[in-house]
Amino acid sequence: MQLTINISNEQLFDKIVWLLNSFKNQGLEIVESKHIDFFKSNNSQEDILSSFRDGIKDIKKLKDGDSSVLYNGSLDDMMRELR
């Protein structure tokens, strides 16, 4: 069986995870998932499709040997953008 709970409050999230951790020895597995829900975002369908098309173009460039699409900033900058 599987249950998905969406929690927007970080303090409440921590409390629920703490409570659920007490059931791990009884076989409970906790899997955290952080993802962007495009259907609830402020992005329009066209914005999402455009972003997808840009990604496909970049993949084709990489496949053809064009590495100019790779991130050229520092590792710290890239990690900051991913947060």
Strand content: under 5%
Strand runs, count:
0
Low-confidence stretches: none
> What does the average pLDDT come to?
77
Q: Structural class of the secondary structure composition?
A: mainly alpha
Helix content: 40-55%
Sheet bearing the most strands, described? none
Radius of gyration: 19 Å
Number of domains: 1
Shape: elongated
Which series of helices and strands comes N to C?
A: HHH
SS summary, helix count: 3
Distance between the termini: 31 Å
Produce the secondary structure layout:
Elements: H1 10-21, H2 45-63, H3 75-82
3D architecture notes:
This protein has helices spanning about 10-20, 45-65, 75-80. It has about 80 residues and is mainly α. The chain has one domain. The mean pLDDT is about 75.
Comma- or semicolon-separated keywords:
single chain; 83 residues; mainly alpha; 47% helix; elongated
In short:
With 83 residues, the chain is mainly α. The chain contains three helices and no strands.
